[in-house]
Amino acid sequence: ANSETIIKDSNYLKSSSSLFNMSGFRAPKLEEVRIGFIGLGMRGPGAVQRMSMIEGVTIKGLCDLREKSVMNSKEILKGTKHKPDLYFGSTYAWKEMVDRDDIDLIYILTPWDWHTPMAVYAMEAGKHVAVEVPAAKTIDEAWELVETSERTKKHCMMMENCCYDFFELLTLNMARQNYFGDIIHGEGAYIHNLLDLNFNKTSGYESMWRLEENASRNGNLYPTHGLGPICQIMNINRGDQLDYLSSLSSADFNMQKLAREKAIHDPFYAEYANRSFRGNMNTTMIKTKKGRSIMIQHDVSSDRPYSRIHMVSGTKAFAQKWPTPGKVAVNDKWLSTSEMNDLEKKYTPELVKKVGELAKKIGGHGGMDFIMDWRLIDCLRNGLPLDQDVYDAALWSSISPLSEQSVANRSNSIDIPDFTRGHWKTNSPVDIGLQGAGNTSVNYKTKTINKQMGL
Ligand SMILES: NC(=O)c1ccc[n+]([C@@H]2O[C@H](COP(=O)([O-])OP(=O)(O)OC[C@H]3O[C@@H](n4cnc5c(N)ncnc54)[C@H](O)[C@@H]3O)[C@@H](O)[C@H]2O)c1
């Protein structure tokens, strides 16, 4: 009932049917993809570097609040063909860049508050959008993204890089070829100890934005890394749909404590000493319309090893990535190393065969970031539908505000909006490079590597 009210109150649900179905949307081919970047903090420069190597890309603009950050990224492009204009120094400097008429794609890597406002403005200005995770912080923002993308017919891809990791893509291909039988249950997570980084005021997040998120909201603040790959495997938005969720948070056992300890020696932390922080561990359970279940966890403050879990449980087989290496079981027995090798030979997607080895050399979370960026450019150049559309961006991001509502209401179940407005029943699954990938080449230091890769 809670979510019903919020959805009805939304300014953005103006019609009960979609304006235009963006699922499977093919934009006109772009031989050259001219990019402007906004947000060049810890994440941004890597994206600038990766994109600079891809054929057909021209980097037209670099923008950040801080001049120093813009200069750092400019330095990365030294000696390349890219001669971007630079934008910095004011909160809205990015608008000047977005308003240009010689840019096709705006790549947004800012704090979360800015994702939807910048993405909407860019689509309105006729640009495709690539936006970091999560794309939206509220249900209203999620609808705003959907309605803007439908009205402007511009792509809005949330850059969920974990969908391009090697084991995730392998299990996606296995699922598409019915290896798991019917998928019954999936699990994902973002368990990553960011406690020190969140509290780091000198070399951490700009203006402590991530500490502020953790001190002001209680729920799963970062659901998409775990959820994205599971939704693709379950064909969510394209054959099945998320229906409702229940979310529960533990208490906070260490964030406020740390704030209080730090405040003793440094008055900077005083304002956090009495804040009521997010519970350390959030667990969210989701039921799909076809009866599947999903469990998603979020914990960025506990002292434990990194995990996104990535578990797929089907009627015929089972897979789980963490603790790594990824494992597969059939008939209640784990496959041996040689059986796993055979499986990889059989089910490695074409996309990975094409750029996987090169991606590992270029890097970015072990290669997945490069696979994602390359695939985005290859799709835009070939006029292909993007692997993640605006409905995925809206739906996967919406789990944060919905989990906050559930946590605040003793884990009561909350309906999940259907951002496709019924099209999930007939939308076709996207290929995601499983069957093939284009020929966009990569200029990675030496020509030899390009040749080796056949790119
Ligand atoms: N997908 C991944 O694996 C991954 C990894 C890390 C971060 N991220 C995401 O990337 C984004 C950025 O994270 P980060 O770690 O780089 O944070 P950061 O704080 O290091 O960088 C954010 C940058 O945005 C700039 N910025 C803020 N407001 C701006 C404005 N109005 N105009 C222009 N620039 C502005 C800041 O100056 C800063 O340089 C976040 O959304 C985060 O969730 C994703």
Detail the topology: elements first, then pairings.
Elements: H1 2-9, E1 33-38, H2 44-52, E2 57-64, H3 67-76, E3 85-88, H4 93-98, E4 105-108, H5 115-124, E5 128-131, H6 139-152, E6 156-158, H7 166-176, E7 183-191, H8 195-199, H9 209-216, H10 224-233, E8 242-249, H11 255-265, H12 270-273, E9 282-288, E10 293-299, E11 311-314, E12 317-320, E13 327-330, E14 333-334, H13 337-347, H14 350-362, H15 368-382, H16 390-408, E15 414-415, H17 447-453
Parallel strand pairs: 1-2, 1-4, 2-3, 4-5, 5-6, 7-10
Antiparallel strand pairs: 7-11, 8-9, 8-15, 9-10, 11-12, 12-13, 13-14
Helix pairs in contact: 5-6, 6-16, 7-10, 10-16, 14-15
What can you see in these coordinates?
With 455 residues, the chain is of the alpha/beta class. It is 38% helix and 17% strand. It has 17 helices and 15 strands. The strands form two sheets. It has a nine-stranded mixed β-sheet with strand order 14-13-12-11-7-10-9-8-15. A six-stranded parallel β-sheet has the order 3-2-1-4-5-6, with helices on both faces. Helix 6 links the parallel strand 5 and strand 6 (156-158). Helix 5 runs parallel beside helix 6, helix 7 (166-176) packs parallel to helix 10 and helix 14 (350-362) packs across helix 15 (368-382). The model is unreliable at 1-9 and 446-455 (pLDDT under 50). Residues 38-44, 63-66, 69, 91, 94, 109-112, 114, 132-133, 161, 205-206, 209, 365 line the site of nicotinamide-adenine-dinucleotide (NAD).
